[in-house]
Amino acid sequence: MTDTPLSLIRNFSIIAHIDHGKSTLADRLIQACGALTQREMTNQVLDNMDLERERGITIKAQTVRLTYPAKDGKTYILNLMDTPGHVDFAYEVSRSLAACEGSLLVVDASQGVEAQTLANVYQAIDANHEIVPVLNKVDLPAADCERVKAQIEEVVGIDAEDAVEVSAKTGLNIEAVLEALVTRLPPPKGDAEAPLKALLVDSWYDPYLGVITLVRVKEGRLKKGMRIRMMSTGVVHNVDQVGVFAPRLTPMDELGPGEIGYINAAIKTVADCNVGDTLTDDRRPADMPLAGFKPSVPVVWCGLYPIVADDFEKLRDSLAKLRLNDASFHYEAETSAALGFGFRCGFLGLLHLEIIQERLSREFNLDLIATAPSVVYRLWRTNGAMEELHNPADMPDGSLIERIEEPWIKATIMVPDEYLGAVLTLCTERRGIQQDLTYVGNRAMAVYRLPLNEVVFDFYDRLKSVSRGYASFDYQMDTYEESELVRISILVNQEPVDALSFIAHRSAAETRGRAICAKLKELIPRQLFKIAIQASIGSRIIARETLGAMSKDVTAKCYGGDISRKRKLLDKQKEGKKRMRQFGKVEIPQSAFLAALKMDH
Ligand SMILES: Nc1nc2c(ncn2[C@@H]2O[C@H](COP(=O)(O)OP(=O)(O)OP(=O)(O)O)[C@@H](O)[C@H]2O)c(=O)[nH]1
């Protein structure tokens, strides 16, 4: 292969707000190009993880190579890179965009531009993409193409006059999208005779082939049998296989400039493949690497503990397997007095956390407790040292701390006018600072700076509820700033329960401390003695509840009955024991932890 001239290649991504129909459109394009037969065509080929399909969201960027005989009589190679739409995965969007020359900007013609439309399109503009607007869902009665075109021009600032109007659902006008790709996007550039430069876009673990690496060749040729060097580490590998996604893995002899494909090179772990790295020919290396990406940094951490202590090893194995397919997921072992042995895990955001948790329970059959999510604080000690704090339990004594900084985000929220008031109130409650407020028709666009720790708990849910689901939200990380943060410890019968401690702004500490004590009082069963449930900052108690002792007759034993029934009862009791955690003299049921941790701190 690679006898395809560059002029006949088009590399493109599809960018859209969640649910605007990106995956449906991708499926239609694949179908129209005959890459899969009707029978092979299951719904949404690109979203190939079960979980993605169920939730209808795209997590991992995927790619497909299509062959399109255009109206000009020539046959083109179209490489489609799917991109995730959710804000947690903005980083994966940027790396897919770096491998392409253009984007289809899909906007739901009945909804119009949303916060993630904007965030993604700005990334595409940064990546120097040619952008073709596509108005989807024109079959819906509420579709209003003229209004949405005007909106795209006004808010996004790109020409929308020639936007392609389609229905990905009915298949209307799909051909026009393919023609627009061929006529409006530029072909890739690159010199096939230059030393190899290929961008490492992604890598994942395939149970049959081992580590698969997705690459975009920029210069030179990438051939089977070649010795390649990773420019950031100098590590050398033999290329066992080169190929393209058609959409199944299809081996080829080589990939030339402008092409997107995969290599398989006996690489042991995904961790050895740095996304954004440049691959070059070990015998004739390039002088300079390509501009890479910044590494993805986890912004939210929480502890994951097995409910049954015996599952610890299984959890360790499962996390290792997940990590193979998801380099942005981090974990390290930790112990908690309350929860035993577990892991501290880092995620790109809350959705990422939820997805990993769900995969652990579904694919690996693990019952887990997750501690409250925490952002990464920067802690400056009085001795001048700075450390990153991932876990509230690790916060040193106040006398050792000079200052703490917390991460802020810049959030864009789009919302219909009638819900604006409620949204602004929510942002203010969460310590938000308004940066900008503009109108597009009857929709407001508010730009706020907010502390991330006010967002990780339930901001997204609250936003949806105060706007009846109409607000859309997107954010990017901003700066770190000094803040009055305190750690709130929870004490049961004078014993601190480490898994329940959390960090909050001083102004919110008391309310949240009080709420958690009240909740625990409801959840902890009465004991033979009276116990105190307290919240404290250092040695100062800020909230207290008292749980009365239980009356004696509740412990009355049950005699008689046949042996098997007794055995059953004993087994049941054993189960029950497993689900309790001993706290000094107090036993706290698992359900109390779960409920307390679920609370909005
Ligand atoms: N009526 C109508 N519905 C559509 C059309 N295209 C997509 N949909 C529906 O819109 C919903 C979202 O479509 P998806 O393709 O999953 O959206 P997406 O943008 O890929 O979403 P993410 O993968 O979560 O980013 C699905 O229920 C589709 O069936 C269309 O042209 N008309």
Automatic annotation (TrEMBL):
The organism's lineage is: Bacteria, Pseudomonadati, Pseudomonadota, Alphaproteobacteria, Acetobacterales
Q: What is its EC number?
A: 3.6.5.n1
**Which EC class is the enzyme in?**
hydrolase
Name a biological process GO annotation.
positive regulation of translation
Task: Pinpoint the Tr-type G domain residues.
Answer: 7-189
- Localisation per UniProt entry: Cell membrane
What is the protein's membrane topology class?
A: Peripheral membrane protein
Cellular component GO terms, alphabetically?
plasma membrane
Q: What is its main location?
A: membrane
Residues that, per the record, bind GTP:
D19, H20, G21, K22, S23, T24, N136, K137, V138, D139
Protein name, entry field? Elongation factor 4
What is the similarity comment for this entry? Belongs to the GTP-binding elongation factor family. LepA subfamily.
Q: Which domain of life is it from?
A: Bacteria
The record's listing under InterPro entries reads: EF-4, EFG_III/V, EFG_V-like, EFTu-like_2, G_TR_CS, LepA_C_sf, LepA_CTD, LepA_IV
Source species = Novacetimonas hansenii (Komagataeibacter hansenii)
**MF terms per GO, please?**
GTP binding; GTPase activity; guanosine tetraphosphate binding; ribosome binding; translation elongation factor activity
Q: Which gene encodes it?
A: lepA
Q: What does this protein do?
A: Required for accurate and efficient protein synthesis under certain stress conditions. May act as a fidelity factor of the translation reaction, by catalyzing a one-codon backward translocation of tRNAs on improperly translocated ribosomes. Back-translocation proceeds from a post-translocation (POST) complex to a pre-translocation (PRE) complex, thus giving elongation factor G a second chance to translocate the tRNAs correctly. Binds to ribosomes in a GTP-dependent manner.
Which reaction(s) does the protein catalyse, per the Swiss-Prot or TrEMBL entry? GTP + H2O = GDP + phosphate + H(+)
The cross-references to Gene3D superfamilies, in alphabetical order and at most eight, read:
3.30.70.240, Elongation factor 4, C-terminal domain, Elongation Factor G (Translational Gtpase), domain 3, P-loop containing nucleotide triphosphate hydrolases, Translation factors
Q: Which UniProt keywords apply?
A: Cell membrane, Elongation factor, GTP-binding, Hydrolase, Membrane, Nucleotide-binding, Protein biosynthesis
